[in-house]
Amino acid sequence: MSDYDLIVIGGGEAGISAALRATRLGARVLIVNREAELGGGCVRTGTLPSKILGNAAHFLENLKKGKRYGVPVVENARADYKTILDSRHKTTMCELGVLTTLLRKNAIATLTGMGSFKSPREIEVRLPDGTMRLLEAPKTIIATGSRPMALPGLPFDGQVVLSADELTAMDVVPARLIIVGAGVIGCELAFIFRSLGSEVVIVEKAERALLGLDHDVAALITRELKKRGIRLVLKTGLERVERTTGAPARAVLEGVETIECDRIIVGIGRLPNTDGLGLAAAGITPGPRGEIQVDDRMQTPVAAIYAAGDVLARFMLSSMAVVEARVAAENAMGLDVKMDYSCAPWGIYTDPEVGSVGVTEEWARAGGGDLVIGECGYNDLVRSCLDAHVTGFFKLIFDGATHKLIGAHVAGPDATEIIHFAALAIKMGARVEDIRDMVYNHPTVSEGFGKAAADALNKLEQRTSS
Q1: Neighbours of 231 (CB within 10 A)
Q2: Which residue in 296, 301, 265 sits closest to 120, CA to CA?
Q3: Which in 170, 269, 310, 399 has the greatest CB count within 10 A?
């Protein structure tokens, strides 16, 4: 008989979520984590730490609006990067303490080491001192997360070429910063470091920024990048970096130009952490990026093994990982639960923020759907005018036949907070009439949902009358 009912490989947000849910269902759980500290990228290098930088950047931007209310403004105010990093460290340590207490209260065992399958039910762990320990459990959940993807032939060096996980390697805000990749990570960091004082250039091989997001969202963020003095170079990649002692680095773009810079941050995506897991011994064949493939119950082709989070290479969001892990744990413990991505929201912490859920207009039209789109600008909202935040819009996508909400995209202040309203509306099958007829507090930003729904309903009524 094994000592544990479930072994979770990986102690990040997904692994901890899985362990907590399984424990509450009566399982004896062990978390095997590569590092001594739990929390994974979300707590230590990604989601949480980046928000500290974002808060500092937003605070500086809001300072500029003080004159509107008669508040004296400090011209050319700058933030001290080291102080920001100290705040980031304190926040991280606080969260790590919370997680440690949570695991202790729920009697979840942890083991530091590298886990590798010897069979579907056996896991060998290499401990920090080099010794090996063989574990056995009837069920396993893989939640080993991901790592930043490097450019071919241009590895991260911790000095000039950095990943988005290595921002603590800098002790000052770089005067000249190049960001490779105009995806979510690249655009978020561009706004942050521009506010902190960097001259920023984004290099992107695709034809537009934020590829895959709704085109109206991408267009607005692109305009805001330009307004903030952030240069966006499209259809171009970084060919090489030239370095001379005592001189700035020189980034050579593909057949275009050479740009002097102090730092280069590469944000072109992430790769699943599946190397060294011994997946072949478990009977699992990873996908082309090394990802683990699962069904909607988070179960791999091997019945006893489940997976969740970045290791799936699907959405790579901590919010999604937590729910995927909960679904995996529930099914591992004998329940029958399916993962529903149709109402899972996205939050993008650019300036302005972006919140999205459901289908994009392009995706829906490609499927031949009958759509009705309702829109409302932030400049139509009293609250936004009061706050002097009028850049942004609400875009609601309804099915023309059923009138149900199938997609929502909000770009503007508080978008990542209020998008949950639309996510719940999609989950509950809300119709355009339901959203329009809601009573909204006034003045609020959320009134944009009602106004956008009213716009869509007007369009539907015009169809009927014509």
Answers
A1: 14
A2: 301
A3: 310
Structure tokens at 48: 């949480």
E-assigned strand segments in 67-157? 109-112, 114-119, 122-126, 132-136, 139-142, 146-148
Contacts of 382 (CB under 8 A, 6+ apart): 442, 443, 447
Q: What sign for the dihedral angle of Cα 354, 359, 365, 366? A: positive
pLDDT tens, per residue, the chain with 466 residues: 578 999 999 999 999 999 999 999 999 999 999 998 888 877 777 777 788 889 999 988 888 887 778 888 777 788 888 898 888 888 888 888 888 899 999 999 999 999 999 999 999 999 999 999 999 999 999 999 999 999 999 999 999 999 999 987 788 999 999 999 999 999 999 999 999 999 999 999 999 999 999 999 999 999 999 999 999 999 999 999 998 888 889 999 997 799 999 999 999 999 999 999 999 999 999 999 999 999 999 999 999 999 999 999 998 999 999 999 999 999 999 999 999 999 999 999 999 999 999 999 999 999 888 999 999 999 999 999 998 899 999 999 999 999 999 999 999 999 999 999 999 999 999 999 999 999 999 999 999 999 999 999 999 999 887 6
How far is the CA of 214 from the CAs of 83, 309, 373, in angstroms?
36, 24, 13
Domains and CATH numbers, the chain: 6-147+271-332 (3.50.50.60), 161-268 (3.50.50.60), 346-465 (3.30.390.30)
pTM for the full predicted model: 0.94
Q: Phi/psi at 73 (nearest 5 deg)?
A: -110, 130
* Alpha-carbon distances, residue 152 vs 148, 273, 384 (angstroms): 13, 18, 45
Which residue in 344, 304, 287, 305 sits closest to 321, CA to CA? 344
Residue 57 tokens read as: 């950047």
Find out whether the peptide bond into 443 is cis, omega within 30 degrees of 0.
Answer: yes
